[in-house]
Amino acid sequence: MSTETPALTLSQTRLLATVIKTTRNMLALAEQEAWDAVADLEVLRREDLKRCFEIPVQDDKGELVAEALAVLLHLNEELMGQLKTARDQVAEEGNTQIRNLEAASEYQKMRLIR
């Protein structure tokens, strides 16, 4: 039984590339406000990342992994920015709806007083 740590394999490299591509797709879907699709891809992305890092990375492959993770972090920041913008927009729409309902209620009260 070997206790040697396996090197970053071709399949791991492909998984990292797949995760980056998936993240880019998520960003494009977020721009289209397709949040259900973004959530579905997030589940797949997490599974791919888990599989990718089940095997420890050897020191000589660390730079490749670091670069891929830097790309992922940058894309994640963009994705989180889009999510925050969408969340803020939904909150504002909710606040506007509440104000409209309150105004309609006040108008209704005024009609009843007359």
Bin the strand percentage: under 5%
Structural class, by secondary structure, is mainly alpha
Which CATH top level class fits?
A: Mainly Alpha
Largest sheet: none
Low-confidence stretches: 1-6
Alpha carbon gap, first and last residue: 90 Å
Shape: rod-shaped
**CATH fold call:** Methane Monooxygenase Hydroxylase, Chain G, domain 1
Which CATH architecture is right? Up-down Bundle
User: What Rg is obtained from the alpha carbons, in whole angstroms?
Assistant: 24 Å
Count of DSSP strands: 0
Work out the helix count.
3
| CATH superfamily annotation | Flagellar protein flit
Query: Helix fraction?
Result: over 70%
The number of domains is 1
Q: Would you tell me the overall average pLDDT?
A: 84
Order of helices and strands: HHH
Description:
There is one protein chain. The chain is mostly helical. It is rod-shaped. The chain has helices spanning 10-31, 35-52, 62-113. Helix 1 packs parallel to helix 3 (62-113). The N and C termini lie far apart (90 Å). It is 81% helix and 0% strand. The chain has a single domain, classed as Up-down Bundle (Methane Monooxygenase Hydroxylase, Chain G, domain 1), CATH 1.20.58.
List the helices and strands and how they pair.
Elements: H1 10-31, H2 35-52, H3 62-113
Helix pairs in contact: 1-2, 1-3
